[in-house]
Design a protein that fits this description.
Layout lengths: L7 H8 L3 H8 L7 H14 L5 H8 L4 E7 L4 H16 L3 E7 L4 H13 L4 E6 L17 E4 L9 E4 L1 H14 L6 E4 L5 H16 L8 E2 L4 H12 L6 E4 L2 H13 L9 E6 L12 E5 L1 H18 L7 E3 L1 E4 L12
Parallel strand pairs: 1-2, 1-3, 3-4, 4-5, 5-11, 6-7, 6-8, 8-9, 9-10
Antiparallel strand pairs: 10-12
Helix pairs in contact: 1-2, 1-3, 5-11, 7-8, 9-10
Length: about 325
């Protein structure tokens, strides 16, 4: 029996069943007894027959493919979230079709939807961590289930995000509880939703505790920008505590403080955000906010699969909690300061 190009008829002859029975087994229909199913499957393996999964998907209306649209794949958060989505999708039996975007404008978003529809995906997960997705002129095309991750967008779709406000509050309260009179903030870019939420929560926490609110210094998420902005903070003797909006900028800030001979944490305490793998290897090891990218990815995939299964919209937002990880970069201020 030929191993290549084998047909359903070849399987039927070898198994001694009808072509209709082979079709039911190939399409995983329940109305075949176990012994017959095993015989047909054995015949498929022997002749090298593989069911046409594309044709079966067209009949069933499910392709087991998830489209992912991502903006700035090079950023730490989006990269880790995409990896988490990919792993969760694989566990759930879905393949991933990725479309990176350089700009989150209406034309690019619509074009990405069109391309994914042509690639026969069941639904789409959007990772666009920028305010562009929240602009009034951005509309997500209809026709496919959608889950939005880490965005300020107010759409009638499930939204999954890290609890950015909780993380910034935990960081700021930790430094205030150590006895610092206030906390400076090294913020992320204003185009970032996550950076905006962290900055706003930092400010609200200071106000609620009756503490002065210093001016925000803004970086671009990179260690280099953390260093450039950090030199201003390092040169100011009034600065005793800094909350950096991510670990990379905190790394640059630590270098700037070292170069100004500011002891960490004796003179200045520093808290980051992310808890990337290298944070424990900074000098000193970095106190930071841990966000669970694995949970975000899993819950995004779960939300999309729930939409596919129910064929109904469930747009309750999902907020994944954060955790304060205390290491050696924070301490009470020196006595007399």
């Amino acid at each position: 029996m030929r191993k290549r190009g084998s047909s359903m008829a070849d399987v039927a002859r070898l198994a001694g069943v009808s072509g209709q029975t082979v079709s039911r087994v190939a399409n995983d229909r329940p109305n075949v007894d176990a012994a017959t199913r095993d015989r047909v499957l054995a015949a498929m393996r022997e002749v090298g027959y593989r069911p046409n999964s594309a044709a079966r998907a067209l009949r069933n209306g499910q392709f087991h493919n998830i489209g992912v649209i991502v903006f700035e794949l090079s950023s730490f958060g989006n990269t880790r979230t995409f990896n988490a989505v990919s792993q969760a999708a694989t566990v759930a039996g879905y393949a991933i079709n990725l479309i990176p975007l350089l700009d989150a404008d209406q034309g690019k978003v619509t074009g990405a939807f069109t391309r994914l529809q042509e690639q026969a995906v069941d639904g789409i997960i959007i990772l666009i961590e920028a305010h562009q997705l929240d602009e009034a002129e951005i509309h997500l095309p209809a026709g496919l289930p959608v889950v939005v991750v880490d965005s300020s967008a107010h759409y009638d779709y499930p939204i999954v995000d890290t609890d950015q406000a909780q993380g910034a509050r935990l960081a700021t309260e930790h430094l205030l509880d150590l006895g610092h009179q206030t906390v400076w903030h090294l913020g992320g870019p204003p185009t970032s939703f996550a950076a905006t939420r962290r900055r706003r929560s930092w400010e609200e926490t200071l106000v609620s505790r009756g503490c002065p609110v210093p001016p925000v210094l803004v970086g671009d998420w990179s260690a280099a920008s953390g260093y450039d902005v950090g030199r201003q903070l390092a040169a100011d003797p009034a600065v005793t505590a800094v909350f950096a909006a991510n670990d990379e900028m905190a790394l640059g800030l630590l270098r700037a403080l070292h170069e100004q001979h500011r002891d960490i944490p004796g003179d200045v305490s520093v808290v980051g955000f992310d808890d990337q793998e290298s944070a424990a290897q900074f000098w000193p090891p970095l106190t930071t906010i841990r966000q669970s990218f694995a949970d975000v990815g899993r819950q995004a995939v779960d939300a999309l699969i729930a939409e596919l299964a129910s064929r109904e919209h469930h747009h309750q937002p999902v907020s994944v909690p954060t955790e304060l990880v205390i290491r050696s970069s924070t301490a009470p201020p020196r006595v007399g300061r």
